[in-house]
Design brief:
The protein is α/β, with parallel strands linked by helices. It has a domain at 4-183 and 234-264: Rossmann fold (3-Layer(aba) Sandwich). The protein has eleven helices and 13 strands. It has helices at residues 13-24, 42-50, 64-73, 88-93, 95-116, 149-167, 201-209, 237-254, 270-281, 305-311, 319-335; strands spanning 4-8, 28-33, 55-58, 78-81, 120-126, 172-178, 180-182, 216-219, 231-232, 234-236, 258-262, 268-269, 287-290. The protein has a seven-stranded parallel β-sheet, with helices on both faces. Strands 7-10 form a two-stranded parallel sheet. A two-stranded parallel ribbon has the order 8-13. α7 packs across α11 (319-335). The longest helix is centred in the N-terminal third of the chain and has 22 residues, at 95-116. It is globular. It starts with a strand and ends with a helix. The mean pLDDT is 96. Bound molecules: uridine-diphosphate-N-acetylglucosamine (UD1). Uridine-diphosphate-N-acetylglucosamine binds next to β7, α7 and β8.
Length: 336
């Protein structure tokens, strides 16, 4: 019998792509989402991609009664927890909101799981937990030094998982530390579509390409990198989604616990990204060099070896595929 995975935040950017990969791997999947940062039509689009009805419930991870009802209704084998706030700048302004949604929300999920006898959880973490790099690439044993309330919230959740496992060995968890997710599904039916002005590079470039924003502001060209702009490890969202399928499979098969980077191991600069996007959309994209963004660092990228050795995970899609799939998605959204 196929296993059932509950996806919190399953209608969001990474959650929706993970839904598709889980379904194609043969899992039954239940989505919960409060739709605070998801397109309302994503459920229909997931049904279209997978050619099957979607099981979903609208609700919030802060609503304990809602969570208890969901666990009573479905025989869940494992949870993949995405539902969280993720804007670093906003977290500095609203640390309480970040603590409540990210930490209290997660502890609510864990309590509901425990009450229902479900002990397998994959947690969506971030490379931002490492802070200023002492050495690169970041390996999973790099020291942890969160510099924002957002990063701190992820560290708090990772710590809670460790403490929970120490308290009760029935718990199995996978912590996945994402690098910079980018791109969209090949169908161009789902992708990243922030309502406000994007904070992150790729959605910002996408809005310049569609004409919604006049130019890219390059945050500094005097970094200690080959072309002076910031270097990051961009990973295709479909590769990232596949990493979740492998992680949850390992928990279910081997009663496992792991903490792994999900990145490609290759760094690209802001200009690399811009050039690749120009190729994808077939036009020159305007940019202005501006000051550095507070808190940014020159360069970081993953050591992907542990995820490869442990899960057999390997990112297969490069920068051009990220930009092309993003462009296919945003140009379709704009014209629909
Ligand atoms: C940001 C978050 C990080 C999160 C990651 C997810 C911050 C400080 N960090 O990381 O916690 O895990 O997103 O994707 O927000 N850039 C520009 N112009 C722009 C936007 C970005 O030049 O309009 C540059 C940045 O200076 C950086 C690179 O592009 O060098 C990538 O920026 P971004 O996409 O925001 O990602 P991170 O800063 O790596």
């Amino acid at each position: 019998m196929s296993k059932t995975i509950l996806l919190t935040g399953g209608a969001g950017y990474i959650g929706s792509h993970t839904y598709v990969e889980l379904k194609s791997a043969g899992y039954d999947v239940v989505i919960i989402d409060n739709f605070s940062n998801a397109r309302p039509d994503v459920i229909d689009r997931l049904a279209q991609i997978t050619d099957a009805p979607v099981t979903w419930h609208k609700g919030d991870v802060l609503d304990k009664a809602f969570l208890a009802k969901v666990f009573a209704q479905h025989a869940v084998d494992a949870v993949i927890h995405f539902a969280a706030k993720k804007a670093v700048g906003e977290s500095v302004e609203k640390p309480l909101d970040y603590f409540e949604t990210n930490c209290t929300g997660f502890s609510n999920i864990l309590m509901a799981m425990q009450a229902a006898g479900v002990f397998n959880v994959v947690f969506s973490s971030t490379a931002t937990v490492y802070g200023e790099p002492l050495s690169l690439p970041y390996t999973e044993d790099h020291r942890i030094a969160p510099v924002s309330p957002y990063a701190q919230s992820k560290v708090t959740c990772e710590t809670l998982l460790r403490q929970l496992k120490d308290s009760d060995p029935r718990w199995n968890y996978g912590v996945l530390r994402y690098f910079n997710p980018a791109g969209a599904h090949d169908s161009a039916l789902i992708g990243e579509d922030p309502n406000d002005i994007p904070n992150n590079l790729m959605p910002y470039i996408a809005k310049v390409a569609t004409g919604e924003l006049p130019h890219l502001n390059v945050f500094g060209d005097d970094y200690d990198t080959p072309d002076g702009t910031g270097v990051r490890d961009y990973i295709h969202v479909v590769d990232l989604a596949r990493g979740h399928v492998q992680s949850v499979g390992k928990l279910l098969d081997d009663q496992d616990t792991h903490i792994l980077n999900l990145g490609t191991g290759t760094g690209y600069s802001v200009f690399d990204m811009l050039r690749s996007y120009e190729k994808a959309c077939g036009t020159t994209l305007p940019f202005k060099i501006g000051p550095r963004r507070a808190g940014d660092i020159d360069c970081f990228y993953a050591d992907p070896a542990s995820a490869r050795d442990y899960l057999g995970f390997e990112a297969t899609r490069g920068l051009d595929e990220m930009c092309q799939s993003s462009w296919n998605w945003v140009s379709r959204v704009r014209n629909s």
